[in-house]
Amino acid sequence: MRYRGFTRPPSYHGVLPSGFACGASLGLGAREGGGTLNDRIIVSGLEFHGHCGITPAEREVGHRLSATVEIVSPLDRVTLEDRLGATVDYTRLCDLLLKLGRESRCRLLETLAVKMAREVLAAFPILEVRVRLEKPLTPVEAIRGSFAVEVIRRRQLSHRKKKR
Fold first, then answer.
1. Which of 41, 74, 95, 100 has its CA 20 to 30 A from that of 60?
2. CB within 8 A of 60, min separation 6: which ones?
3. For residue 51, what are the CA distances in angstroms to 100, 120, 150?
C-alpha cells in the first residue's frame, strides 16, 4: 500500500509508535527519498556460551550458540540525522543479547529466542524483530549441521479510530 510517498505493510494500519519518523512525516515524497517500513538492521554471527538444553548436563556445562537478529525500523530519519542517537545502537543491542544468552537457563532454544525477541522489542523503538538462534554442535550424532529456531515478534500498535 502506498501512503504519502512510502510503503507500509497493511498490518500496521497507518499507525506508528511514538518516536518514529518516516519519509512522509519529514516532508519527503516518493521521489525525494521517502522510505519504507521494510528497512532492516541486521546483526549476524553473534556467538556466546549459553546454557540451553534438555538434559541438566547441557544446561550446566552449556554450548556455543549463535544468534542473528534482524530489526525492522524505518531508517529515513536516521539517514537524515546521521547520528547514533537516531538509530539502534548496535553495541547496546549486542550487549543485551549476550547478557540474555549467557545468563538464561532454558531447556529449549525456542524459549531463549522468544525471550531475546521480547527484550529487544522492549528495549528499542522498533516495529519488528526476527531472532534466529542456532546450536552449531548438536548432541545428536547423526546431525552434521545444526539445530536452529527462528522467531518473529512485532510491536502491537494501537489502532486509532477515525472521527467522521
1. 95
2. 51
3. 10, 20, 18
Size (the chain), residues: 164
Residue 21: alpha-carbon gap to chain centroid: 19
The CATH number that applies at residue 112 is: 3.30.1130.10
- The H or E element containing residue 123 is helix 109-123
Tell the residue number behind the cell numbers 556467538, with chain if given: 47
Predicted TM-score of the model (pTM): 0.72
User: Is 14 a member of any domain?
Assistant: no
On whether residue 81 sits in a domain, the answer given is: yes
Helix or strand (DSSP H, E) at 116: helix 109-123
7 in a domain, yes or no? no
pLDDT, tens digit, for every residue of 73-123? 888 888 888 888 888 999 999 999 999 999 999 999 999 999 999 999 999
**Residue among 82, 71, 21 at smallest CA distance from 41:** 71
Q: What are phi and psi of 145, to 5 degrees?
A: -95, -125
The count of domains in the chain is 1
